[in-house]
Amino acid sequence: MEKAFGIIILAAGNSSRLGKPKQLLQYNGNTLLRETLLQANLLHNTFVLVVTGAYKVVIEKNLDLLEVQVVHNPNWEMGMASSISVGLDRLCMLKPNLNFCIFAVCDQPYVTAGVFEDLIEQHNKTGKGIVASEYADTLGTPVLFSSRYFNELLNLKGNEGAKKMLQYYKEDVASVIFEKGAIDIDTLDDYNNLINQIS
User: Fold this and answer.
1) Which tens digits make up the pLDDT trace of 46-71?
2) 10 Å Cβ neighbour count for 145?
3) Is residue 1 over pLDDT 60?
4) Is the pLDDT at 199 greater than 70, yes or no?
5) Cβ–Cβ under 8 Å, residues 93 and 6
């Protein structure tokens, strides 16, 4: 029986170091957020949800042509944990029989459907409840959590997101190599470097 899963894209931050919404930066003929969404939507039988926050109106306007569920996190300033909780709560309400969920961010421009598929394949192969992306000597997003961790994710607090869970449950963690996951967009220099690489 095919497992039911969702992908939550966290897009609630205010891009303080950039000074404008990085979710809407142009990349590959799209915005960073739309490109991440399009990659997520390439997966068969998945349910994709976006969590907005600081730039709710302009981001939701940018998404109006895509088939995607959007939930707003009014407490986005409290950090990533609040967006994880809000997104997962809505996803579980819409899809109560989920077996696992993948969390992604929209400022990793090299995320592809293949990265999501690698996480799922590793989860199916190893049976591990958490599968994280491995890059730059760390584990991070995109990251898959099986449903047995949902209650804990729903009760996360603070700005470190689910990172501490990777340490606490390290015996139940597998990883996939995603070297380009180390490239993310936090500053204008990051973005200019990205554009220069593809131009």
Assistant:
1) 899 999 998 888 888 888 656 688 99
2) 24
3) no
4) no
5) no
Sign of CA dihedral 170, 172, 174, 180: negative
* Residue 131: other Cβ atoms inside 10 A: 28
- What count of residues does the chain have? 199
Say which residues have a Cβ less than 8 Å from residue 114's Cβ, sequence separation at least 6. none
Please, what's the b/e burial string for 158-174 (b: 16 or more CB within 10 A of its CB; e: otherwise)? eeebbbebbeebeebbb
What are φ and ψ of residue 115, in 5° steps? -65, -45
φ, ψ for residue 60 (rounded to 5)?
Answer: -65, -35
Integer Cα distance of 85 and 155 in angstroms: 7
Average pLDDT, the chain: 89
Query: CA-CA distance, 20 to 8, in Å (whole number)?
Result: 22
Identify residue 78 by its one-letter amino acid code: M
pTM for this predicted structure: 0.93
Q: What is the DSSP letter of 186?
A: -
